[in-house]
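This section describes the prediction task in plain terms. A model, or a person checking by hand, is given the sequence of a single protein chain and must write out its three-dimensional structure as a string of tokens. No templates, partner chains or ligands are provided. The sample shown here is typical of the held-out split.
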Amino acid sequence: MRKPFFLITMTLCLLTQACGQTTTQEDKPQLTIQPTTQPSRLTVTDFTDVAAATIDAVVHIKTEMTQLTPLYQSFFGFIIQQGMQRQVYNAFGSGVIITTNGYILTNNHVVQDAERITVTLNDRRELPAKLVGNDPATDLAVIKVEADGLTYMPFGNSDMVRVGEPVLAIGNPFNLTSTVTSGIISAKARNMHIIDNPRSNETPLESFLQTDAAVNSGNSGGALVNSQAQLIGIVTAIASGNGNYIGYSFAIPSNLAVKVAGDLQHYGYVQRGYLGIQVTEVDAAVAKQTGAREIKGLYVAKVIPDCASARAGIKEGDIILRVAGKEVNTFAEMMEELGLFSPGDEVEVDYVHNSHTQTAKVTLLNSQGNTQIIRK
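The expected answer:
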């Protein structure tokens, strides 16, 4: 008996209930991505001006939380629990100022469950911060300090980032504030399976930029910056067996971060659009089993009834080639592209059906099967 070729099926829509009618969305927040031009020839980059232009936009974050732990006492050699005691814990990370009036983008794991958040600016001012919103599925969060006239960092276009491009990582490793390291982009669209605490019915969205710029504990939530002093990623994780840097680190692409940050500012919750399909990546084995002419794209293993793809005519056995004009050959690439859109947005999906390439206009739906705004 032949083994099934799709060993791991990745889910873009976990809910199977019927989809409802669509409604008009509210106005979307107006965070913008700065245009990025590509160099026409190889150059050696001097990052001194870039560091000077961006370092004031990166902050140090201190969080405080309490935890109840058992209190034991010894009586005549017996250890007996005598209630609970409260212990205070502190954690540290980094964040990036994205507006002049104090909105700061960081990692969700830096601030989640925090009872108190304190931000230290590069000029050493300490300000209390409040949580505006968080998104465990992307490990991003937005916090706010009450201040005006702050130095902020503009978003660059992470889609234009190239492997081999020089970058800076700016953060606060080991509480060493305002630390700058340099490296290159070593890979794109990495899915590391490190986000393990999304809300129910949400699929972790991982499509990291990989860099060899040195980062360590405390860099989480800091900035990955290109040679034009633009934010192209939020540093989130390192590849390590001991918790310290051993060669590679990972950042959330800015194009995804700007969508998440805008939704959190405007709604307190990310408005995420779903195709309503389960897919597996096309490799040599899948291509042989399905008779695909090329080893590329994503094989549609299941279409959720009455969801976005089903309404657009996409069927099981089809192979998706492009979403919104971007080629998708990995699950991470598709998740990153879909993460830029909201329920109600119409995206073009190019796919192969019965050996013929077709294009469908798909109206994305939310996790509840409609296009209504979901609030926190």
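For orientation: The domain at 271-363 is CATH 2.30.42.10 (Pdz3 Domain).
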